[in-house]
Amino acid sequence: MRFIRLILVMTFISSAMPGCKTIDSIFNNDAYDPPPIRHLPTLENSKWIPHASELDGQAMKIIWNVSTDLRQDTLALKSKIEESIQHNLRAEGIQIKNPEDQQTVKLIEEIERARKNSTELNQGGEQKVRFYVKGSLTKSSLENKFTKPIWIPFSKKKRPGSCKYDLKSGFQVEVLSLPSLMRVKHFGMDVEDSFSIDMYDTCVPYHSIPEAQNEYQITHAKVLKKIVSCNAKSLKKYLAPQAYIEEYYSDGENHIYLISSGSAAGFKKGNKLNLLRKNSSGLLVLGKAKVIAVQPYKAYIKVKDEKLRDKIRLHDQVKVQYIDFTFGCRGNRTEH
Fold it and tell me: pTM for the whole thing?
């Protein structure tokens, strides 16, 4: 009862004081009243505008397809890599079309046909997905090598040698923009790990010895984890939430911009952003901004740099700064 009285009192106060926040804005963290709207210039001599599906505030949609040209996936990695990376991307709010759905299977076939013929994909005027992400298992092998024991003079006792088992894996990812099918990013990762077991005379299959089988499982898990974590982090960095500048607000002190996506696309309050502009050579970094309020399909960002504010134009792009923690991947990882 006391709580209801408190609500009624606060409602009366807020209605009597126009300058105060409403009850809705007090209890709803997403509520935000921007300063007065101002003119937002367009970029001169630019005919490029984002596709309508890029401005609807929905989560990024991709097609994810994993294939292999290997005769044998000795380490049984393909399906596990596919499932694990998909799980990582979905956790970031990225929508992945079911690769087993008949409509998606047909679309993948059309994409591959268009790639082979060096033509664009015909999507009937509607851009349902932003990227085609293709993973390829390039290596999945298990090799062993027996090393004889060191010779010791006058020793009559038979001593074991050592059998070394090498697990080798390779995985590559291509990111193609739709509908142009231009390859915009490529990641590659090779992982090798091994374990050794004492044996006499020769190596035997690892699964015939409990100790070797246990070491294999441990080493296999390490290889899989590194392949997945390095590629997933690279993909999450590239596919980080992005949107476009739509409106400009200012009261002379605060300079706020409305962007075309919100929490549904992965934006969070406090996100640090890169402000970007498309040009003939790719994306030009203009400066930095910060998300100050988030709604389901829109968000507000703040720009402090006065020189940067003079540069911003309608449909300039913003992208969340993704911190790259792939230090352990360097040395056997390629990216371009």
Answer: 0.73
